[in-house]
Amino acid sequence: DSSDDIEDVSLFDADDDVSRRSKKSKIRHPVASFFHLFFRVSAIAVYLLCELLTSSFIACMVTIILLLSCDFWAVKNVTGRLMVGLRWWNQVDDDGRSHWVFEARKVSAQRSKTSSEAESRIFWLGLITCPVIWVIFAFSALFSFKVKWLAVVVMGVVLQGANLYGYVRCKVGSRKNLTSMATSYLGKQFLRQVRFPGFWKPS
């Protein structure tokens, strides 16, 4: 849209602040935001209500697995790229070796036009909360001896946990970067303690 390329200059800083806040809170991809939550919430709802709706375990299992598969594909290939500018995938090089690639969109002036804080909150809330719920279901099925449901619940943990792991890797970088950041932080804390030994002692 050509209107997105036009930037109005306000005469007052207050107007600029209001404009920036409205852009941050605006959901720019409502369809992607809807389907980011629709498939995973629907899978949880079917799992909770399936025994009330039907007595067929096979129908419930197939429905839940289909919803989880649609969620995995949508989150991995569509909603992550549109809502937060992250993506991950696996590629095979010419030697036949498999490589996992984790990418994040570079911060630039164009970022404000493609994502917003509201979408980011929706994305991470759904991405983190739903796998935690499936883990709770897994323990519940295990301790209540619902063996037939355990395979379905494990499928939910694996598929949604894989997306969570992939996007966390995209967000924070590779494991090597995490290790170097932690080492650097601990080194700074150690030097600070050496310089000011009394700072860390309890009063």
TrEMBL record:
Source species, domain of life: Eukaryota
Topology class, membrane: Multi-pass membrane protein
Primary residence: membrane
Keyword flag Repressor: no
InterPro entries xref list: TVP23-like
Membrane spanning stretches: 30-49, 55-75, 122-143, 149-168
Alphabetic keyword roster: Membrane, Transmembrane, Transmembrane helix
Cellular compartments per GO CC: Golgi membrane
Annotated localization: Membrane
GO BP terms in the entry: protein secretion; vesicle-mediated transport
Family: Belongs to the TVP23 family.
Name assigned to this protein: Golgi apparatus membrane protein TVP23 homolog
Species: Syrrhaptes paradoxus (Pallas's sandgrouse)
Classification lineage: Eukaryota, Metazoa, Chordata, Craniata, Vertebrata
